[in-house]
Design goal:
Order of helices and strands: HHHH
Number of strands: 0
Structural class: mainly alpha
Strand content: under 5%
Largest sheet: none
Radius of gyration: 20 Å
Number of helices: 4
Number of domains: 2
Length: about 160
Amino acid sequence: MARSRQPQSSSPGKQTSKSKPRVRFIFEPDRTSPNGITYSWLIHDTYNGKEKAATATRAFWLPFAYEAAGEYSEDELKELAQQSIWQMEAQIQHLREKFGLGVGPTSSANEALVSSASVAAAEESSSVTPSFAPPQAGTVAPVDIDLLDEFTDVL
């Protein structure tokens, strides 16, 4: 899957023949927000925190970015997606071990989602096209309480 690509730089700058075009990413969340607390911890209190943040971002989004580039085969994209899943599953296991969590859902919202997924999988295996059902009244979808989703609020 190794491909050599030369990304095009859209900004003029000092680039010698040895330097590569770079993507500049500046993110300045409030230090008391979930993003601020997370990134402050990563950058100041962990070993190689910037790389950890980049690794997490790649695990979530790299297969989609490569798909959008339109230069990779379906097999390459599937392999990349599988590698991302393995990275995320390893992090899930780390969280479970670190915080003493068992396997499986721990909230009623997650139980509803897992239950819906099981029903959808059963329907799909019997050649019935599953339909999306919104959460029942009184339940909170994970998106509504997800601190990980705050990033979009600051863009």
